[in-house]
Design goal:
Blueprint (H helix, E strand, L loop, with lengths): L2 H20 L1 H31 L3 H34 L7 H31 L10 H29 L3
């Protein structure tokens, strides 16, 4: 291969890489949305129901589900923060006037409330009920109430995630 052809191919390859990197923040944003919203739906509406359906020990199923939600919460925080930072770095103050920015803010706030507000209280109730299952303890009513609140918050976050996916999808 002649030297000129080699350098020509190398330069073309470098230019293609630079063009791809120009859109890197957009690609990472798409991956963040996919990971966060996909995780919400896969864990909340697939993995956890299957877990409770197949695991005869409901206390163990609850512990495993709780651990999945905790890990998903950290993923959501990372993805949400990236999406907000990416939007502000691309658009500046104009990002604050976009609906999608505020959808991410609400999703992130719901994640934070679930992760650092409701889930720790639920975990504490489970721990106080030991060795009994929290659902068969004096804490059952409070646990059910918090579980209901967290389920509604999770549903809202999931639906906002669908909105986010649909509105950011480019064919």
């Amino acid at each position: 291969m002649p030297v000129q052809k080699f350098f020509g191919l190398a330069i073309e390859s470098i230019c293609a890489t630079l063009r791809a990197m120009k859109n890197l923040s957009h690609h990472l944003a798409a991956l963040a949305i996919t990971a966060w919203v996909g995780g919400l739906w896969a864990i909340g509406y697939l993995a956890v129901p299957v877990l409770f359906y197949t695991q005869p020990d409901r206390q163990l199923a609850g512990e495993l589900a709780g651990e999945m939600f905790i890990r998903l919460g950290y993923l959501g925080m990372a993805c949400g923060m990236y999406l907000l930072i990416q939007r502000v770095s691309m658009l500046g103050r104009a990002a604050l006037r976009q609906w999608l920015f505020w959808v991410v803010v609400v999703m992130l706030l719901l994640t934070l409330v679930l992760q650092f507000g409701i889930q720790p209280i639920m975990a504490d109730l489970k721990a106080q009920a030991l060795p009994a299952d929290v659902m068969h303890s004096v804490f059952a009513d409070r646990f059910k109430m918090l579980h209901g609140i967290s389920s509604i918050a999770y549903l809202i976050e999931s639906l906002l995630g669908v909105f986010l996916v649909i509105k950011t999808h480019r064919a």
